Amino acid sequence: MYLPSSLSRIVLGAALAAGAHAAWAQQQLVPAQSEVQFTARQMGVPLDGHFKKFSAQVAFDPTKLATSKITFTVDTGSATLGSRETDAELPKPVWFNVPKFPQAQFESSAIKALGAGKFEVAGKLTIKGNAQNVAIPVTLTQSGATTTATGTLPIKRLAFKIGENEWADTSMVADDVQVKFKLALTGVGKL
Fold first, then answer.
1. CA-to-CA distance for 138 and 18, rounded, in angstroms?
2. Per-residue confidence (pLDDT) for residue 190, from 0 to 100
3. Partners of 72 in the β-ladder
4. CA 85, CA 69: separation in Å to the nearest integer?
């Protein structure tokens, strides 16, 4: 059986990938054009999964980064690796413990411009009640009225207690998980 070692880390990567220029109500996530994926390794074999439900609140102004804010929330119960058997394991206490921790969240604390549409979004990622400070590299591109934020966040699943007890053995499921996100936003001013 394949197990979700890095699903919750994906949540944080997606959380910080939002860029916009107006107020919270004016900047909206376009779920149909957005995705949060993750890749874990079980016995050396890559396992690709994604989260089906997530949301973002964005107040981003590239000229006022000090007051810009991003909050990204992922429903941990929406994690899937594409197998009914594995997906039935993910909500259990040893993995995401969905009944007790139904959501993972990223909340930004600082956004730094790196030039050429690239930003570093620092903040707190909380999964399964465990909080870690992270810095996420985010690239923003614009096409028409849509701004797309993309990035990859490497996380350590054990720092968030994802895969406990016998699943803490990193020879079975690697500790490293790559969370990739693509978030499409409307209402973002010109970069």
1. 8
2. 85
3. 56, 106
4. 38
Residue ranges of E strands in the chain: 28-29, 35-42, 45-51, 54-59, 69-75, 79-80, 103-115, 118-127, 130-143, 146-156, 176-186
Please say if the pLDDT value at position 25 is more than 60. no
pLDDT exceeds cutoff 80 at 73 = yes
- Separation CA 45–CA 104 (nearest Å): 25
Residue 81 near residue 90, CB atoms below 8 Å: yes
Residue that the structure tokens 């964005």 belong to: 58
Closest among 155, 154, 150, 95 to 128, alpha carbons compared? 95
Q: Which of 54, 78, 72 is nearest to 18 (CA)?
A: 72
| pLDDT tens sequence across 169-188 | 999 999 999 999 999 999 99
pLDDT for 3 equals 38
What does the DSSP 8-state code read for residue 23? -
Three-state secondary structure call for residue 11: helix
- HSE-up (13 A, CA, CB side) for residue 8: 32
Over residues 127-131, the mean pLDDT reads 97
What is the DSSP annotation of 135-173? EEEEEEEEETTEEEEEEEEEEEGGGGT-S-GGGG-TTTB
